[in-house]
Amino acid sequence: MAPTTQTQDAPLQPTTTTPQTPQLTESSPAAAAPTQGGASEKEAKEQKAFERWTKTLSLITGIGLSKEEFQTEINKIDRKQCELRKEQLIKTSPGVRFMMNNLVKSGCPLTKNMLECGPCDNTKSGGFSKDHGILLCQNGFFSKKHQEHTMIHEMIHMYDHCVFNLDWDNLRHHACSEIRAAALSGDCNWTREVRRGHYTFTKQHQECVKRRAAISVAGNPKCPSRDAAEKAVNAVFESCYNDTRPFDEFY
Ligand SMILES: [Zn+2]
Fold first, then answer.
1. Which end of the chain is more exposed for a tag (fewer CB within 10 A), N or C?
2. Major location, coarse class (predicted)?
3. Torsion of CA 164, 160, 106, 108, to 10 degrees
4. How far is the CA of 221 from the centre of ligand 1 (A)?
């Protein structure tokens, strides 16, 4: 990723789509195909159904598809789901709609083609680029809620870039936006924390925000170490955590 313009955000539970290849032993419907002469319409229909069936089975088992073919099919399925959820969330998610409205008000409207679903490596869930808009990692979401939080998270980066004219090479600037994005997007809400096993009774929200912000800042090409990322986060934490614009409070 190009330096200075990108932020990338880690998913909470990376998903994998490695094909499994168990031995398939059951007989196929082809064995039961009628053998009388004259290819009837019924036979043609059955053949089609069989092809659909074997394709579905191939996807489940990985048998009969090359690694590339398998990945292409998985990418298609992931993209379709990501695009569908994106459309639904734009219509129904209060947080997504609120951020979209505020981006319009700030003079940086987010058009649909700036909100792109695409495959990423398994450590990412989304990213913002000032030149290209928002990437949604179609293979990085473990739920619709996770996609919703990622959309809001990246829109907060976009908002910050628009309103505060951030310098993404400056670790404190980057840290500030990551703190706000983690705090305001729902990334650190209670159920997500419990699922990650990081739940502690006091200050869990702040701790979660700090930890997630530091992980993201550590991914900045200008950041020399995790330690430097944590220092940048701590230096700006109070003021950025308490700056909830454009929200009135935590979402
Ligand atoms: Zn981020």
1. N
2. mitochondrion
3. 110
4. 14
Main-chain phi, psi angles of 149, to 5 degrees: -60, -40
Q: What is the pLDDT of residues 11-57, one digit of tens each?
A: 544 344 444 433 333 333 333 344 444 568 888 888 887 777 777 76
Ligand 1 centroid vs 6 CA: distance in angstroms? Answer: 9
The CA-atom distances, in angstroms, between 244 and each of 12, 162, 188, 239 are: 23, 15, 14, 10
> Catalytic amino acids?
154
- How many angstroms separate the alpha carbon of residue 77 from the centre of ligand 1? 25
Q: Where are the alpha helices (DSSP H) in 106-225?
A: 144-164, 171-184, 190-196, 204-218
- Helix/strand/coil for 214: helix
Q: How far is the CA of 185 from the centre of ligand 1 (A)?
A: 10
